[in-house]
Write a structure and sequence with these properties.
Blueprint: E1 30-34, H1 41-52, E2 56-58, H2 60-72, H3 80-85, H4 102-111, H5 115-129, E3 135-139, H6 142-146, E4 152-157, H7 160-173, H8 180-196, E5 209-212, H9 218-233
Parallel strand pairs: 1-3, 1-4, 2-3, 4-5
Bound molecules: cytidine-5'-diphosphate.
Length: 234
């Protein structure tokens, strides 16, 4: 088995102006959860939100909504201006099952490389993190770009093989017929695109705690995440 992805080179968080939020309190923290596809970051972010009683935003859904818009009107993800036209995501039904499909995930990873698309989705994320009650956000660039001053940052990862197995189970549970090899190829391609892009690439912030979930059950990963965040907030 290979080592967990993205564990080598942490980067400094961007020096960006803070949102409109006033000073944070320990009772209303902002928690940033980043990591590659199928690392478990979404499940962990949801569990943290529940445990700390905070609102949660899955920022990947914003990029998936852009991708779904684009795909439905037959736009070409190879053109930034077409992707930008798909950025009005207000009308996308958050429960649309197609949002979670691999096709849409693949298009999301392509359009998310465009700075114009990232800029169009920035305000929504900054508004969410600036809520007075605190928040949990998960994605690829939360600890590095969106909330560089988050109170706790987790970078959740796992080996590519483990992530492919997890994604396979997820897709099978949704009734899809898929092969492990195809899922593995897809996840490798997504990792490469997300990490190699010029703007807001997937990377661990230097001050993020690394959580390798390769050998952990869901419950173990959640318990480890809560312990790491509690330590940061103490
Ligand atoms: O669930 P999974 O990890 O497969 O993907 P996701 O979190 O729903 O994100 C879909 C795609 O959106 C990713 O492959 C990224 O390219 C992009 N994304 C991003 O660029 N920045 C974020 N903060 C979140 C997602």
């Amino acid at each position: 088995m290979t080592k967990p992805a993205f564990t080598d080179e942490p980067i400094d968080a961007a020096d960006v102006p803070k949102g409109s939020r006033g000073p944070r309190t320990k009772a209303a923290p902002v928690i940033a959860v980043d990591g590659p596809a199928a690392s478990g970051k979404g499940t962990i972010a949801q569990a943290l939100a529940k445990h700390f009683d905070l609102p949660h935003m899955d920022t990947g859904m914003l990029y998936r909504a852009v991708a779904l818009n684009l795909w439905r009107w037959g736009g070409d993800p190879a053109h930034e201006f077409e992707a930008l036209k798909a950025c009005d995501v207000a009308a996308v039904d958050p429960n649309d099952p197609e949002l979670r499909s691999e096709v849409v995930g693949g298009i999301a990873s392509r359009v998310s490389a465009y700075p114009a698309v990232r800029a169009a989705l920035l305000e929504r994320q900054r508004e969410f993190e600036a809520q007075p009650g605190g928040a949990v956000l998960d994605g690829r660039d939360i600890g590095t770009v969106i909330v560089p001053d988050a109170d706790a940052k987790l970078f959740v990862t796992a080996s590519v093989e483990v992530r492919a197995e997890r994604r396979l189970e997820e897709l099978k549970a949704r009734g899809m017929k898929v092969h492990l090899d195809d899922v593995l190829i897809d996840i490798r391609a997504r990792d490469e695109r997300d990490a190699e892009r010029e703007f807001a690439p997937l990377a661990r912030a230097r001050d993020a705690d690394l959580l390798d979930t390769s050998a952990m059950s869901v419950d173990e990963a959640i318990a480890a995440a809560i312990a790491l965040v509690e330590k940061r907030l103490a």
